[in-house]
């Protein structure tokens, strides 16, 4: 059956029909909103490169979470900006650490908000690297201990899920072991499994004040040229006990999302990162693109590639569109 019998345009003439045959449907349930919490009171610092995003002190974060929840987005991913940093990031493990305070405050006001805690040292170390420095290098095995302690501390504060983003070898297994030892066997781990050394993280590092003071992250984050290696990373994380695997960034890595989903059939998350969001916003501000339309196209493409969960600074904007509010 070829032309003129086959006319693919037949299914495109009517909106109802187009909707019926839509293969990929983005849902509010897929979305996670990242938020930045900082020390102090009444802080609401705009992040210049990420319009609409702020560094928020705890009480303002709670108010923001209410807006997020009302939009239909029921999950947030928290990043902390502590008042003080140290050499190995142990400030991230304190009972009264900034994210720990934030988790308790959110849970007290919005009990059903699902809180995912990012686990990494780069926001908490004076040098901005994701682990402890020994002989000028990020030391893998000693870093596993601070990551495990941070995870347990965040779970104690009430985090619903732990999401390690550091890219140390063996961290999923070590964190799983520490969580289980502390009776948090029901807390899932979402591993940033294929996390690339990406220029797209630039705006985030302004937001989280986490840029490395020397060198770069190429000795632990992945080379953007590799995707077989991404499958090895994912395979190891699954073997170590990851419940959800992640590809990050998303937009330039749709092929990696596709390969991971096809190969492992695991719940798969994709992180539509800060630089991807900033590019969208910058072009939108100049009226070079229709921002809302391109945003939905990007998110739908990430889902079409195979992501079940999309972490995005566009979560609330997308939810409003999905709910017919904008
Ligand atoms: C921490 C971390 C980073 C991001 C998430 N967790 C930055 C980095 O690795 O430098 C980036 C998120 C974004 O760009 O939106 N390791």
TrEMBL record:
The alphabetized UniProt keywords are: Heme biosynthesis, Lyase, Magnesium, Metal-binding, Porphyrin biosynthesis, Zinc
Q: Which residues bind 5-aminolevulinate 2?
A: 274, 313
The UniProt annotation places Zn(2+) binding at 120, 122, 130
Pathway, according to UniProt? Answer: Porphyrin-containing compound metabolism; protoporphyrin-IX biosynthesis; coproporphyrinogen-III from 5-aminolevulinate: step 1/4
- Signal peptide boundaries: none
Q: What's one GO MF term for it?
A: porphobilinogen synthase activity
UniProt catalytic activity? 2 5-aminolevulinate = porphobilinogen + 2 H2O + H(+)
Q: Name one GO biological process term.
A: heme biosynthetic process
Indicate which residues the UniProt annotation says bind Mg(2+).
Answer: 233
GO (cellular component) term, any one: cytosol
- The residues the record assigns to binding 5-aminolevulinate 1 are 205, 217
The record's annotation in SUPFAM superfamilies points to: Aldolase
Annotated EC: 4.2.1.24
Query: Which NCBIfam families does the record cross-reference, listed alphabetically?
Result: PRK09283.1
Please state which protein family the record places this protein in. Belongs to the ALAD family.
* PANTHER family assigned: DELTA-AMINOLEVULINIC ACID DEHYDRATASE
- Put simply, this protein is called Delta-aminolevulinic acid dehydratase
Higher taxonomy: Bacteria, Pseudomonadati, Bacteroidota, Bacteroidia, Marinilabiliales
């Amino acid at each position: 059956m070829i032309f003129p019998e086959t006319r693919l345009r037949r299914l495109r003439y009517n909106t109802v029909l187009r909707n019926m045959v839509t293969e990929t449907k983005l849902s509010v349930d897929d979305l996670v909103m990242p938020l930045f919490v900082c020390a102090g009171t009444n802080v609401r610092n705009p992040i210049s490169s990420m319009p609409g995003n702020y560094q928020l002190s705890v009480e303002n974060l709670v108010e923001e979470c209410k807006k997020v929840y009302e939009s239909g987005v029921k999950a947030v991913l928290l990043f902390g900006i502590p008042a003080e940093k140290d050499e190995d990031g142990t400030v991230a493990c304190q009972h009264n650490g900034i994210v720990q305070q934030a988790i308790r405050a959110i849970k007290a006001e919005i009990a059903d908000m699902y809180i995912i805690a990012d686990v990494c040292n780069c926001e908490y170390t004076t040098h901005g690297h994701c682990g402890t420095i020994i002989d000028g290098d990020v030391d893998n095995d000693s870093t596993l201990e601070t990551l495990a302690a941070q995870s347990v501390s965040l779970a104690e504060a009430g985090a619903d899920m732990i999401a390690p983003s550091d890219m140390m070898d063996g961290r999923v297994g070590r964190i799983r072991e520490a969580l289980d030892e502390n009776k948090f066997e029901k807390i899932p781990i979402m591993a940033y499994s294929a996390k690339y050394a990406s220029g797209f993280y630039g705006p985030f590092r302004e937001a989280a004040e986490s840029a490395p003071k020397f060198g770069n992250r190429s000795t632990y984050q992945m080379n953007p040229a590799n995707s077989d290696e991404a499958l090895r990373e994912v395979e190891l994380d699954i073997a170590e006990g990851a419940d959800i695997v992640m590809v990050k960034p998303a937009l330039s890595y749709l092929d990696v999302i596709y390969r991971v989903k096809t190969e492992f059939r695991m719940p798969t998350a994709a992180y539509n990162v800060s630089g991807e969001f900033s590019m969208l916003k910058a072009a939108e501000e100049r009226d070079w693109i229709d921002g809302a339309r391109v945003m939905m196209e990007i998110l739908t493409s990430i889902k079409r590639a195979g992501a079940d969960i999309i972490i995005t600074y566009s979560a609330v904007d997308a939810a409003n569109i999905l709910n017919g509010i904008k």
